[in-house]
Each structure stands twice: as structure tokens, then as C-alpha cells.
Amino acid sequence: MRKTRWSTPSGAHSPGYEAGAQVLSKDPSPTHWRLYQLTTTGACDLERRFNMTLAQNHQHVTLEPNSLYILTQPLLNGTFHWAFMLTDAQNIATLHHWIEQERGHRAEAYHMHNIAGGVSKLRNAPVLGYFKVDGYVSIDLPLFIRLCQSAFPSRYPTISQNRAHGLSCRTWVTAILTILKKQGHLNRRDTPEEIEHLVKTRSAECDVTYTNDFLWQRPYWTVVTSV
After folding, report:
1. 29: pLDDT strictly greater than 50
2. Using one digit for the tens of pLDDT, what is the confidence trace for 117-134?
3. What is the chain's alpha carbon radius of gyration, rounded to the nearest angstrom?
4. Which residues make beta-bridge pairs with 111?
5. Which of 5-9, 33-37, 183-187 is predicted most confidently?
6. Which superkingdom, per the lineage (predicted)?
7. Alpha-helix runs per DSSP H in 128-222
8. Residue 15 domain-assigned?
């Protein structure tokens, strides 16, 4: 069975999630991609030097085909950015998440990035972990996209309004899990909220490790596990 191989950044945590980007660029191997972390504009000199030092340190991460992963990235105050990484039988991976958008009359929206297309941008933060969702029954990409688009039919002009109505990247992920379970694409006894709790708890543990690694100037190794 072929698996998708990734290389995630071991760089430092930017204090601003909105600044900078991570770029996936293709390696000579067709299933191997490297994730380069760009330094953050406005970051302190120490952090910039740390980012530049660790930019050459890449970790291989293996993702299984026909699988659904929840990935988390560190933000401020112990919170995380939540997203899905979907892989198909051909090891083509796509990133799906609810993020702020620069244009449009809504502050946030669902976006999909085709990783196999060559380049994808993530905000300037390392991936704490890829959490494979056990019990996921693989569906094709167009159907998954439609489910993602249907999760939040009502959204608001500002981020604060979205949060006041319970709309965030985390609740969006949980909403997708709920839809998958209702439609028979997620076969497990626990609830989507319990899955969310598992990911949140494990991400908090990873965040402690990541913070310690940052303070001691050690590379952080992204966790790949099942929930």
C-alpha cells in the first residue's frame, strides 16, 4: 500500500497566524513533498534567526491513502487552527479548512487547496499533529467538497460575529464530522464532539512539547496518530 509522504517544518511559532506562509514544493519523488516555513514579517530578530536556522530541517510524515486526517496548528493563547487533510487512493491529498478571507462580504469561508497541484499555502505555523479519523469511509473529492460547503449555511460579515454564533475552524471541523456520521461515512460509536475533545486534548499535549522545543531551540517532530 502506497502512502503519502510529507515533510513538515520544524520552525518556530510565529506570534501572528495571519503573517507569512508555508509552501509545499515538489521533490523529485512523486509522493514526497517538502513544506518550507517562511519567516514572519515583523517577528523579532531571535525568532527570525531561529526560523532561518530550522528552515532546512525537514521531517518526513507518512499519510495513508483513502484517509481523513484532522490537522492542528498552534495559535496564541493555547488555541489551534483546525483543518482536514483528505487523501485518496492515488495518494493525492487536499487541504480543507475554514479560514479568514481577504475579499468578499463574509469574513471567513471554506477553502480547499489541491496539494497535488504543486503548491499550497498554509499560514505561518507548524503542524502539531495529523490525527487520522478512525471509522472514516472514503468518499470522492467532489462529494467531500459539497459536504464542506454545506456545513455553515449562515455566516457573518465579521469574525467576532462568527465567534458569537459559534462559527470557527474548530466547530466547522466538528460540523463536517457530524454530517459524515449522519450520512454513513463515519462508522464509530462516539460522537463528533468526543472526537473533537480527543484532538483538542492531544493537540494541547503536542503544544506543550512544541513550546519546550522552541525554548530549547530543538526541532519539533509532528505527531501522526489515530483518534
Report:
1. no
2. 433 224 556 889 999 999
3. 17
4. 97
5. 183-187
6. Eukaryota
7. 141-150, 159-164, 169-182, 192-215
8. no
C-alpha cell read off for 43: 517577528
User: What is the pLDDT confidence band of residue 103, given thresholds at 50, 70 and 90?
Assistant: low
Cβ atoms < 10 Å from Cβ of 44: 10
Residue from 82, 73, 77, 97 nearest 197 by CA: 82
DSSP 58: E
- Return the amino acid letter for 88: D
Q: Is residue 34 part of a domain?
A: no
| Sign of the alpha-carbon dihedral angle for 112, 219, 213, 208 | positive
Tally the domains of the chain.
Answer: 1
In a domain, 211, yes or no: yes
Could you report the per-residue pLDDT of 34-63, keeping only the tens digit for each? 333 323 333 344 344 334 333 434 566 778
Distances (CA, A) of 221 to 23, 169, 174: 18, 23, 26
Mean pLDDT of the residues in the chain: 74
Q: Where in the sequence is the domain holding 90, given as residue range(s)?
A: 59-226
**117, 33 Cβ separation under 8 angstroms:** no
- Cell 494541547, residue located: 204
Backbone angles phi, psi at 158, to 5 degrees: -125, 160
| Whether pTM exceeds 0.90 | no
**Packing angle, helices 169-182 and 192-215, rounded to 10:** 140
> Helix, strand, coil shares of the chain as percentages rounded to 5?
30, 30, 40
Q: Identify whether the C-beta of residue 185 lies closer than 8 Å to the C-beta of residue 123.
A: no
